Amino acid sequence: MTIGVLFFAAWLAASATLLVVLKVFQPRQLALAPLRRGTLTLASVAGVTLVYIATAFAAVIALHALSPQKLRTTQTPLGPVVTTTTSAATAPATRPLALLPTTPATSRAAATRAATGPRTRRAPASRPRPTTLSAADLTDTVKAQALDALAKLIATLFGLFLVHQTIRGGIPAFGLRLRQIPKGILFGLLAFFIIYPILMVCQNLVEHLWAAFFHLPPTIQPTIQALESHPPLNLRIAYFLLAAVAAPILEEFYFRGLLQTALAGRSFGLRVASPADLQYTPSPAHRFAAIALTSALFAAAHGSIDIYPTLFLLSLALGYTYERTNNLYAAITLHATFNTLNMLLLS
Question: Between vectors from CA 74 to CA 68 and to CA 76, what angle results, nearest 5°?
């Protein structure tokens, strides 16, 4: 225990030192970073989003045909659209803030409290283990996530077409040159080393405050719940490919590549594209604002209020890495490494 704490403290100290050495918070460093010049606007981003939503609805229909009794849909911007619901015996541990679980035991406890009068609520001592999902539920979850990834892939291909048409230099100038892969991996791993201990401190602090003020356990995301249900090897590999490979690639292309690039454009991407946009150079404050706005949407699309601060901080690191390097592989590597380590810790 002591060795682990010392190791984490040393990692956190090294992370803070690297932040200072790299001068991350100096606007001049961002002002000198490469630019993605073009006429990409929020209208283009909206078009990609509509393609995704339309394809996702088709995925909903397909999944409903496969398992109509277990289908539930959730609409979020390029987030999970199709998830599965289960019976009371296998219900997920997460719940809305104002609702109580609907299991018989909880209902009886609630009825007893109502009969005996209100009592002081106490924060949970530790995060409860989620109810184990059945094999059928695990399979349905993989199908849902795979169909959602397919919808994102189709929208990404359409987005690549728009980038080819609107960014000067096309897709390579967008930060996707093949020769950028080695540097992208290196920058992404460096960014992960810097941000991960800070994220863990943030998440632990938020969980403590969440339990202290709202008396509720932290939200458990569907993928984490599935992994904690000890799925067979083939499903575990499928979860890994979807969460640690497909999701980082597709989401980084949308949020960092399209949305952040549009917001960093002239008038935050709201103007009709014109030749003048090719010469526009955003100020450091404008680029920081584009990173922050993208991060706010990224965190909102991925989870509940209790994990919002951590995801927002992660997205700031992703956005800054992309804006500073103009290398989308760096953001993808950071995102993929973060997801991979979290999944390995659950194995």
Answer: 150
Q: Give just the sign of the alpha carbon dihedral 141, 143, 149, 154.
A: negative
Amino acid at 232: P
**Three-class SS of residue 27?**
helix
| Cα gap 277→266, rounded to integer Å | 6
Residue 26 gets the label, from left (phi > 0), alpha (psi -120 to 50) or beta, of: beta
Give the closest residue to 97 by CA, choosing from 211, 214, 225: 214
Please report which confidence band the pLDDT of residue 67 belongs to, taking 50, 70 and 90 as the band edges.
Answer: low
- pLDDT tens per residue, range 196-229: 999 999 999 998 888 888 777 777 777 777 877 7
pTM equals 0.81
Q: Which two tokens stand for residue 319?
A: 């956005």
Which residues, 6 or more positions from 21, have their beta carbon under 8 angstroms from its beta carbon?
none
Cβ pair 105, 120 in contact under 8 A = no
Statement: residue 96 has pLDDT above 70: no
Which positions ≥6 away from 168 have C-beta within 8 Å? 37, 38, 278
Is the torsion defined by CA of 311, 312, 315, 317 positive or negative?
A: negative
The answer to whether 188 touches 329, Cβ cutoff 8 Å, is: yes
128 φ, ψ (degrees, to nearest 5):
-70, 150
* Distance in angstroms between the alpha carbons of the first and the last residue of the chain: 20
Query: Please, are residues 78 and 294 in contact by the beta-carbon 8 Å criterion?
Result: no
Structure tokens at 291: 């990173």
Query: Which of 330, 321, 272 has its CA nearest to residue 294?
Result: 321
CB distance 330 to 183 below 8 Å = yes
Which two three-digit tokens encode residue 253? 């292309």
CB 48 within 8 A of CB 159: yes
CB 139 within 8 A of CB 235: yes
84: helix, coil or strand?
strand
**Cross-strand bridge partners of residue 167:** 38
